[in-house]
Amino acid sequence: MPNITVRGAEVKFPGTKKHSEPVLALSDVNLSIPDQQFVCLLGPSGCGKSTLLNLIAGFLEPTDGEVLVDDEPVAGPGPERGVVFQSANVFPWLTCAQNVAFGPKLRGKSKAEVAEQVDHYLERVGLLPFKDRLPMELSGGMRQRLSLARVLINDPPILLMDEPFGALDAQTRIIMQELLLELWERDRKTVIFVTHDIDEALLLADRVYVMSTRPGRILDHVDVPLARPRNYQVSNDKAFRDLRQSLFEQLHDDAAHSANVA
Amino acid sequence: MTGMTQRRSANSEAAIGNRTRAIATMSPGEARGQNKKLKRSGSMPWWQRFGLAVILPVLFVIVWQYVASTGSFGGGMLPTFTDSVEALRVWMFGQAGDSYFAGGWLASLGASALRVFSGFSIGAVLAITLGLFSGVSQNVRGMVDPFITILRPISVTAWVPMALIIFGIGYAPAIFLTALGTFFPVYVATLAGVRYSEGSLVHAARMLGANKRQTLLRVTLPATLPSIATGMRVAAGIAWTCVVVAEMLGAKSGLGYTLILAYNQFQFDYIAAAMASIGAAGYLTDKLIEQLIQRRLRWAMTTS
C-alpha cells in the first residue's frame, strides 16, 4: 500500500550570485496521499508544484522536513515512482520499442523476454504500428504517449506527471487526457499530476491541491465528487462548473494579492 | 522593405521545414526571391554545380603551369603541374629503374595510414574515456582538467624533439604525436557534450531504474556521441598534420618522409605529388568518418 507523506517540506535554492537572496521555492508543505488516489497539484507557474513533484520523484532533497513513500524516506529516484516529464524526454537514439524496453532491460531481461510486453504497452498507447520508428519521426503527442508507455511497463504503483500535456495542442490534449483516464481506470495507480489548467485538474483528479507563489505553499484542497469513469462530457456538469468557478476565484484572488504585494 | 520581409519568411520556413544540412548548404541566392516555393540545394542541376566547383581549380592549375614553366617564381625550381602529375604516376605505377621513388606510393600511403589509424584510435579512446569521467564526476574533472589545460597550449609540433628522444626513429613517435594531437579536440568535445546532455535524459534514466554505471553507458555516452563525432572529425584533420610532421623528422617511411626526402634530393615534382597524396588521404578519412556518423547518428540530424 504505497502512500505518500510530505511533512513540513521546505526547499531553499541558494542565490546564484554573491549578493542575491536565497529563493524559498517551497515552504512548510504537508501532504498525505493514500494509495490509488488521483491527485492534481494546481497553481500558477513559479508556485513550486514541479519542485514538490521533484521531491517525491527523488530528483531533489528537501532542505527541511521529510518526504516519505510507504513510511520510508525517499532516497533518489526509482522505478517504483514513474515520472512523465513536460517534454517527453524519450531517448532520441532508440526506436519506440527500444525506448519502452529500456526499463526491463536494465534489470537484465533479454530482448526476447520483453518483446511481448513491449508490444502490449505500445498497443495500449496506440503506438504499435510505429514500434521501429525513431522519436524524431513522431508528433509531440505520440512522443508523450511513448514516454507514458516506457514508464507503465515498469508497473510503478506511483505515477508522477509534470504538466505532461502542457505543450500539446488543445485537441491532442483532450485525447491524451482521456487515454490517461482510461489507463488509470484499469490500473488504479497513485497519480500526482501537476497542472496550471483548472479544467484538466477537475477532469482527472479525485482531489485538487491549490498552490500559491512566493513562497510556494499549499493554500487549500478540494475534493472532486464527479462520478467515474469520466470523459470530456463531464465539463457540462453543474458540479464541474461550480468547482471551476470557485477554483478560478481562489487562484485569481491569490494572483491579485501577490501582484499587489510585489 | 517588403523584399526583406519575404526573404526572412522564406528563411524561417526553411528552418522549420528542412533539416539543418539543407539550410547549411543553401546559398543566399537560393533563399532570395523564392518567397512561395523554396528551392532546395538539390534542385541545382548537376552540370551547374560541377561547372561552378571546377572554375577555381582549373584556374589554379593554369596559373601554376604558366608560372612554373616561365621560371619566374622560386628561382626557377618550382615544378610544373604536368611534371608533378608525371611524378605521381611514376611514384604510383613506375618500375624500379624509373626513379628512386618508383612504385613506392602504396607502401608510403600504407605506412602513414597505419600511423594515423593507430594514433587516432589510441588518442580518441583515451579522450572519450577521460572526457566522460570528467563530465560526470566533479572530482575527476577537478583533478584532470587543470593538468590538461596546462598541457594543451603546447602545440604538437613542439613535442616532436621530445618524442624523438623518448621513442627514437620509426613508428612510435609518429603514433605518439598523432594520439596527442587527437586527444585534445576529442577530450574537449566529449566533456562539453557530457555537460550539455546531463540533466533531463539522465533524470529519465534514473527514474526508470538505471544505476550510475548503466546511466553512463546507456544514456550519457550515446547522448554525447554527436559531440564526440564532431570532435573526431576535427581530430582526423589534425592527425594527418601530426603524422606528416612526425614522418618528416623522425621516420624512414610514409608520405611525410617522402615529402622531405624529395626536398633533400631536389626532386621537387615529388613534393607536389606527396602534397596531393596527403590531401587526398585526409579528404578520404574525413568522408569515411562522415559516412560512419551519418549511419549511426541519424537521430541527431534534425533541428528539433
UniProtKB/TrEMBL annotation, chain A:
Residue span(s) of domain ABC transporter: 11-238
Keywords associated with the record: ATP-binding, Nucleotide-binding, Transport
Database matches in InterPro entries: AAA+_ATPase, ABC_transporter-like_ATP-bd, ABC_transporter-like_CS, ABC_transporter_ATP-bind, P-loop_NTPase
Domain of life: Bacteria
Entry's Gene Ontology molecular function annotations: ATP binding; ATP hydrolysis activity
Coiled coil: none
PANTHER family registered for this protein in UniProt: ALIPHATIC SULFONATES IMPORT ATP-BINDING PROTEIN SSUB, TAURINE IMPORT ATP-BINDING PROTEIN-RELATED
Protein name from the UniProt record: Organosulfonate ABC transporter ATP-binding protein
From TrEMBL, chain B:
Subcellular localization, as worded in the UniProt entry: Cell membrane
Keyword hit for Nucleotide-binding: no
Keyword annotations: Cell membrane, Membrane, Transmembrane, Transmembrane helix, Transport
Chain ranges of the ABC transmembrane type-1 domain: 109-289
Principal localisation: membrane
Keyword Nucleotidyltransferase among UniProt keywords: no
Pfam families for the chain: BPD_transp_1
Membrane topology, record value: Multi-pass membrane protein
GO cellular component terms attached to this protein's record: plasma membrane
Segments crossing the lipid bilayer: 46-67, 116-137, 149-169, 175-194, 215-246, 266-285
GO biological process assignments: transmembrane transport
PROSITE patterns documented for this protein: ABC_TM1
Protein's recorded name: Binding-protein-dependent transport systems inner membrane component
